[in-house]
Structures
1.
Amino acid sequence: MVAPMTDRTARRFGLVVAIALGVLIVTDGDAFAQADAGADVDAGVDAGLHARALADSGRFGESDLPVACGVAVSDVPDDAGGQLRVTWGVLAERVKSDAITGYEILRYGPGESPEPVGDALATDSEYTDTTAEDGVPYQYVVRTRTPFGSTDSEPCEPAIARAQWFARGRLSTLIVVLLFCAALAYFIRKAKGGGDLFVRKIPGLEAVDDAVGRATEMGRPVLFVPGIETVSEVGTLAALTILGHVAKRVARHGTPLDVPCADPIVMTTAQEIVKQAYAEVGRPEEYDPMRVAYLTYDQFGYTAGVDGMMLRDRPEAVFLIGTFYAESLILAETGHSIGAIQIAGTKETSQLPFFVAACDYTLIGEEIFAASSYLSREPVMLGSLKGQDLAKLGIVCVILFAFVVGTAGALIRPDGTSVLTRIFEFVSAWFN
Amino acid sequence: MDERPRRSFWEIMNDIDRRIIFVILFVVVAIPLVLKVGGTIPPTAPVEGAHEAVESLEAGDYLMVSIDFDATSAPELMPMLRSVLRQAFAKDVKVIMLGHIAIGLPLGHMALEQVAAEYDAEYGVDYVDLGYRPGYIAVMIAMGREIEDIFRTDYQGTSIREMPITADVHSYADIDLLFGFEHGAVIDYWVRYAQARFDQRMAFGTTAVMAPDAYPYLQSGQIEGLVGGLKGAAEYETLIGQPGLGTRGMPAQEWGHLLVIGFIVLGNLGYFFTRGKQRKPAA
Amino acid sequence: MRRAVPLAITFLTGLFLVVSFFIPHRPFGELEQRLLVWFAIVAGFTMLLGVDNLIRSHARKITRTSEGWGHSVVLLVGLVATVVVGVIGRVQFGSPFHLQSPFMFIYSYTIVPLQATMFALLAFFIASASYRAFRARNWVATLLLVSAVIVMLGRIPIGAAMSEFFPWMQEWIMTVPQLAAKRGIQIGAALGAVSMSLRIILGIERSYLS
């Protein structure tokens, strides 16, 4: 029964790799993840390089110190106010390379004299003043420092710091979120109306009943390990929703359930969930709060504690669901060594291979988030799964579109001037 | 008395007791560590990227070092931490240390004091340990505005404004490079908050098991370099020309890998030669 | 009512946080940070709940002389001793983590070796799990087996000495198929997480409340 890696698991793992490989192949690696944060950074780098180039080309004497020029100030966009960005360059003919040791930024408001507000490095051409008061017109002077003395730039035109009511840079995110919500709402509504919703079988979740049943038959406890993260981590929340379902089945069968926790808030929440499950099946007196215990927040102290519980109590069914890091294999191998049936699940991709190798069933990534809907079989919950699938389909379509357009553009005109390349760049930029 | 049937060689190879594997692995890993064998390891591009990021700093620039690991990952991360600190102090770069794993920060502090002593660096002038503050996301976001809001004092309670090194340090804008040493998910938060929001330059050293998680950030250019595991540490030691514990640990890792490969091969041969028997129905 | 209040709090908090992501203007822009501070404060206090649970469950084992009660004695003595030594370090040196603090003795000679030992177990378990899991049962499992051997050989100097193919192929496996699988799973997991978050905010998902 406790096969190291069942053929089915191996096939699923292979399938996931193959599908994901397909996804990546259609994705231009760099363009996919790299923010076109590019644009701003490039601008900054260009300004810096320009200043350095100017510096290298100039002549310099003690009476001809370098001076910052083209000083400009603007409100920092998409912020909560209180910030102004100062930019500058350096006059070419007056600069000797490496003469500048740094800059001092001076600020003054109406009727004030310039006061230093901060410093910048010799390589900088930009400074963000985070101490500006909203609504006050400020002017800035950039003081260039050299070993021979300092020079002040001309004051810039005044600018006012303002808070924005909408982060324009996040417009694309808002549109995607709204589309996603719309898809969810549509399918939830459809499900409420009694529409037929097909959800594929998830073997790991189908096995929950078997695992609890086997523990009951053998008269041995069930161990539920909800990971080592706090309750603010969405993987832990998913684990707690699954715990709710497991606890009800366990309570119904009268099987002992142990839930060791690495976080006190998770412990408190888990205690409430298990207590409620026992109450719902009419056996509140069988609930023992000491079985939902806090061990330690220390990663490997917790691992040692859970391993100890496994070896002493010899649970028949072990659930390893939530957020796990390096302790995943230590826990799973110990569970395997005692012959327990193990159902694992995490969204941590680096730990999935360990679970696949050592557990009977592994819930991969999104399956742990789908578990609650799957186990409850409530139409509304299943509807949200369908909405999620639609969103995923949309993303795959966008990736495919970007791949086709980007590749075709690069093939037609390798210099990047093709219309298709521009469309590709527009799509990439929009999603960033 | 139940009599166990005599097993063939390949049947034994197909099902070696894990305790035997443990003992052999222990011996194989211990021998090179005890004999102190080792040679230099040629660097790979991700490690060179990290090295170049530190190399690009000039005297007086600020390097922020984040200790996001504890003793469990010390064998992998401490050698690379020491190498990065040596490189920084050799260039007179100012080092600001902090950490998001309270129980691991003293390890970073010990390495900082040790390397600082090698270069006659002065506490509060050339380096500082800000210590630990809970809630890493809140800490990372707040440092984008004003570091003093979070770290009013260093780990000993000295005001950061009273120390020359931090007197004028306010936010990421004053930090030229962040080098995090990671054994968990904190790296994701550094990239998400300090890089994506505040455009902080960064490089990381991670445990071998976490390195695959960091590859996407490297590929996307969000981080400049990645030192992964003991091998990465050994490569970094090659780059700074000071072989240390990373280089010395590599033979043990190498022998361990070969042993695991050997067991896998034996297991598969055992599986292959006993497959026919397994398929036969029980008599 | 017992459920309505938590659901309303969840809905409003979730809604405000989503809105604050798009509105940088005060007070929305600061909301996330403010709530994170609240969370840190609440989390700090719940640590007391954890310690309370820990002490009570182990005290119960000792008073009932349950099996292994001696371990509980060691745990409670260790807990109290570490706190006392930490306080002494704080009073004497300003921080328990000062290199001269007595807490650093416990740290260097107990905590560090214990943690390192637990983590070191991973090497042994990886060896036994690899031996068991990497069997050429079918073509997919064979693919997995071959990839694993190439990556292991590619990451050690002897692999490079045998052939340049191993480091090159290792790098390719890590940066192309490995990353591909990872991104595919991550995209799905991220959507799943968003979907679950929405279910929680909208009160559709209630099993965590029970």
Note: The first strand of chain A starts at residue 68 and ends at 75.
2.
Amino acid sequence: MDMTGRALIAGEASGTTLLLRSPISFWGGVDPHTGRISDPRHPNYDDCITDRILIIPATAGSSSSSAIMLELLRNGLAPAALLLVRHDGILALGVLVARELGYGTIPVIELSPEISGLLPDGVAARVKGTGSVEIL
Amino acid sequence: MAMRIVIDMAEMMGAERLTPIASAHIDGCLYHGDSGVEFAEHLVHQDGEVCVPTTLNVGALDLLHPKRVHADSHTAEMAHRQMSAYVKLGCTPTWTCAPYQAGHRPGLGEHVAWGESNAVAFANSVLGARTNRYGDFFDICCALTGRAPLTGLHLDENRQATVLVDTSSISETLKQSDVFYPVLGTWLGRTVGSEIAVIDGLPLNTSEDRLKALGAAASSSGSVGLFHVAGVTPEATTIESILMHSDQPDVVQLTSEMIRSTRDRLSTASTGRIDAVAVGSPHFSLDEFAELERLSRGQRFKVPFYACTGRGVLESLEKAGGIESLTQRGVEIVVDTCVVVTPILPDTGGVLMTSSGKFAHYTPANTGYDVVYGSLEDCVASAVSGSITRDESLWS
């Protein structure tokens, strides 16, 4: 099956997938100084998102999540790519601002729930500039 | 840069054009790391100036009580620089997450660009103004350009409810209690995520503070930007008019079991001693202070009791002579910020009790404290006894 999504922010990346098992608010959910999931009630608690192809089925919570995304990029602790299903643009915004400030950028791809459902946790994957995702 | 970001976001969100906005509320003034300071100061160096009335959300410092926050010197300096930069951009230093109770109340149908998840939910739901859930940095870009992408909740067709929540099996006694609304909100956010619900069966006199608590909890546990309450919020005069497919609606029946288990999940401790109490997320209103005054009269607290509010409310409270009696009982008033966004709680750790669904949600991750949720009355009783004291009768 063709696993192509819509590139909100184009780019190429490769890494190991990390599939979040519950919606997340980056603010109050990810520590921007360690890259780890910091909410003890989140099922992925203590997982490190740095350099991972992060698959986020749904976001929740704070509008400050863009600020945490920006800080992760500034600190070199960002995921390799964001694959978003239901989202409100807040995380992509953090990446957009990072690009403006010269902190670097990562691909942000919007995927349909059908495609994201085909992506397993913990496998090597590659994101291409066209918005396609390939399991290696 | 601001216009470039607005246009990039508009494309990303699929908007064909921009709309003028009447006001903005900025959630970008809270320090999370040096990147936020660099962004804000970059805008200042480019001579940025907001072109619509713009209020500011909390920062990481209590500027009126500088000893309240135990930040290291680098954090304190950077947090101060970040707050100052937004004032230099022409924003009004309200420093509150409840700007709608500090005089910033856009009208029904007015387009605005607001950040801070609870403020977004309130502006859309309770005031009937129109904003998407704008993230930090984007809110200020809209304020600087006076524009927002015309998409999402700015458009009539996206403001209809897709889910009907039937609350008829919940007791009237619970519905007439403040403690119900943060729990209802938490359940709503978890259940509907980003969908728009119309809630049926709430009292027609549901107060603004209860709606505020509902929205704040729903936008913490889920990404609710708009909810309707039939007969109460301005766009839900009738269920038929606001519900999509009202002939075959998607109905969720709320049960007392759902409410009870949601309430239980808001806490990470249930018995034993507490180390502090915190209320006021969103920031306490004058009415909420009046209730705290009434409940705590003649009492003396054994543990620190933090009440977080905006400096505007504090000023009114001071004028009315309502401060001294509260501080004598042990209430520590926190302004411009709150206990889950910056280090205020004693660094010993322990158990925090709260009447706020939002504090209950964020306390474990942000402060390291365990948390117990209860009514304001429970909070007062527990602060007096020093251990968890909750009225269970409402929930049985």
Note: Residues 160-264 of chain B form one domain.
